[in-house]
Amino acid sequence: MQDVPLSWYLGLGLFMFSTGVVGVVIRRNPVVVFMCIELMLNAVNLTFLAFARYMPAVLDAGESARSAWMAGQMMVIFVMAVAAAEVAVGLGIIMAIYRLRNEIDLDEMSALRG
Amino acid sequence: MTSNQLVFLMLAGLAALAAVGVVAFPSPVRSAISLVINFFILAFVYFTLGAQMLGITQILVYTGAIMVLFLFVIMLLNLGAPDAKAKVSGWQTAVAVALGFGLFGIVAGQVILPLSSFTQPRSAIDYGSPQAIGQTLFTGYVWPFEITSVLLLVGIVGSILLAKRRI
Question: Could you report the predicted ipTM of this complex, rounded to two decimals?
Answer without folding.
Answer: 0.90
